Amino acid sequence: MITQELKDQLVSIVGTRFYLDSNNERYAYSYDATPLYQSMPDAVIVPGTTEEVAQILKLANEYRIPIIPRGSGTNLAGGTVPVEGGIVLHLSRFNQIYEIDRENFTATLGPGVVTSELHQAVEAQGLFYPPDPGSMHISTMGGNMAQCAGGMRGLKYGVTKDYIMGLEYVLPSGEILRCGGKNVKDVAGYDMTRLMVGSEGTLGIITEMTVKLLPLPETKRTLIAYYSNLLDAARTVEKTITSKIIPATMEFMDQATMRVVDDFVKLGLPLEMKSMLLIEQDGTEQEVDRDIEQIAEIARAQGAKIVEVAQTPQEGERLMVARRSALAALSRLRPTTILEDATVPRSKLAEIVEEIERIADKYQLQMCTFGHAGDGNLHPTCMTDERDTEEIKRVEQAFEEIFLAAIRMGGTITGEHGVGMAKMDYLGLKVGEAGLDLMKRLKAAFDPNGIMNPGKMFANSDRRRVVVKQ
Amino acid sequence: MNNLLKPNQATPVCDTDKMELVSKGSLSKFDMNEILNCMHCGFCLPACPTYRQMGMEFASPRGRIALMKGVAKEELAVDAEFEHHMNLCLGCRACETACPAGVPYGSLVETAREMVEDQKRDSAKPSVMKTVVFDKLFKNPQRFKQLGTALWAAQSVGLQTLADKTGLIKVLPRPMAEMQKAVDKIASPIARKKREPVMKSGQANALKIGFFSGCIMDVMFFETNQATASLLQKAGCDVLFVQEQVCCGALHAHAGEKDGAIELAKRNIEAFEQAEVDFIVNNAGGCGSALKEYHHWFHDQPEWQQRAMNFVAKMRDANELLAELPPLTFSKRIEAKVTYQDSCHLAHGQGVRNQPRQLIQRIPGVEYIEMNDADSCCGSAGIYNITNYEMSMDILDDKMKQVEQTKAHYIVTTNPGCLLQMKNGIIRAGLQGKMEAMHVMDLLARAL
After folding, report:
1. pLDDT digits (tens, 9 = 90+) for B225-258
2. Considering only the top CATH level, what class is A97-215?
3. Model ipTM?
């Protein structure tokens, strides 16, 4: 509860324009892109400076008001749903790129910068920021950082955590701290930067970030291969990499996904095929041509029925758009679409896809699978209806089995979406009881009063927890 | 407040019991299936002009649909705040193009506004402006003609200049004052009377076109209608001005006046049935979009729905039809740089994007320059530039930066509202004399 007295103090920090608490305003911040989760905040505050953030956090800490940092609200783990009420701290005003350092290959920016805007700004200077989550035209860099977003280029270039070099952050106490910076080598103390990345807003508020850049690859080419089964596609992925070729992107779509995406983007895909791979390589012209030719050969040798090389960059781009639209296009089938991101070592790709099919069949659910084949990060997606409580129960059971299968294969419960609320019951599966305990103690060191994004990451102690027997 | 979902209810999973598999219909007019189709992925956010201006969730399509869902679940009231958020939407439907899930946002926001108007009718009187504009003016074509004559007279005696010079303009409400500067000299009553009801192509087996002249279009842009008819005639069609037609009803529907809109639709369907034409053609993107959606307005009247479907099947935008017909032969060159501003309801509503661009590029001498974000709304949006003046002008000023970058001599568009807004934009950006706003049909006719 925010008392009138506290409200007055908060308004005096940001002004009435940026303190929002009418019914409609609060309702519009009661959800993110995750299905099924919704809860009202007490207020939405849109701060404009680090100093304002510090003052707000200090007050919230004193009055024990939850703080939920938020960018564009595209996360898929319920990470920005204000489940215990409190203040949604909307960081959209921190939307400036302060510097692109062409000597050190870094960019310094506010967390409210939209990911694809950073892409455009650095690419205009011949530089490259590789992480490209599916929501990159909407999501903010702060959100990418908080969830450690992945994307399609993960296989070759890694994910958000591999590019965050330095941060400015605010603790609930109101202290403003800095960690990391522009140094490639920096071993002064614990790596706080890495700890903050992927902390899902549970430790502090990021107010500035410095990211690593690369030279922009000269060119890229796209190849598509269609298969009459799953195994041949998985083997193509394996064989490509064991041939020591690391493509920038290796995306997988199953038949059900192909059908829906084709209906949306109208690409004329051969819909009788059971699966497809979308492979992109970047680099110099020579490297790219050589690699793409070699991959085409591998694909044919592994039984691909059709292999096509996109003739122009525009054609390649259009195919990538198809893959980027997969999740949302699937939502046309049924009212509710639940997407997970169970991840396995690459070598287990075919095994997990078959396991997902078996589980979907067992629980009689409609599931499509697509995802980042090159890094084993799959998106089994269930089309359902949130009003059908009986079916939703089966969905939950099915996903639990999928998580267990992933863990059994040496994988993880979440590759790139984060734990949030959606997977907090399963975190123990991956990190163990002692791991959970240490994480909680770490959080307490940053946030002793538990105001930072409460109700996320860690399950309430009395909730049922699945124990896996290895 | 009681009905709002509260924090700490131990319901991270939203309370599904309030949502039944079939929407109730009694309290809420929303189709729950359509609302649930929005998976709140956020793809619409960067496409939305008001979100881009404000950066706030409630100023986005995803936010507005969430508020509608709140109303449908009886967690939010249909009140002044809800009305404000629904009316801040331009209705440009760029979000529908961006939406991978195919959510029919345009019809959802119309339903929301309808509920707002229903609520107001129950509780208080509707606004005077709405009564005058929607009931008295738009439903009566004769009044439109009278208004046209009055406007012509005012312009003829130099009232516009007089108003500018005397400062009378300062007394007018600002949106009106600013917009009227942008209005061209309208056609005289004599010129309008000279219109021939049928324009024959002289060809055997000519396509018979029923021309939907529109109400605003026919008063403010009479010459554009004449130019369109001439182009169609030149392309080998017999063009018929159907006398009994009335306003298309789009503005009524956008403003939540659904009953008024349906009444107008019925009159138009009847008028064009009697005319027995091959195609119905119009040149205003906004009207065209509504005319092509008539069948969605009659869900509970099967007989009318069938008649509406027949009407819709014949409906074409002038750009659409001219692009399909044998190419026009132009006798003049237009040595100029030309850029194109999409009409939202032509691009996002009707999916007509390439045809006007193709037609422009067929004119000899024209250098066509594609503008960045050409299909993003100019802020005109029906009567939005009067009802939400500040936001409309913010959007327009951003748009003019893109327009200016093209260094075009002509900014071409396909809808009266957009055309007026562009004319105003040229004045605001200080580009008079360097750039002219024009309807695509007028530009084409100039090269005939």
Report:
1. 999 999 999 999 999 999 899 999 988 888 888 8
2. alpha beta
3. 0.92
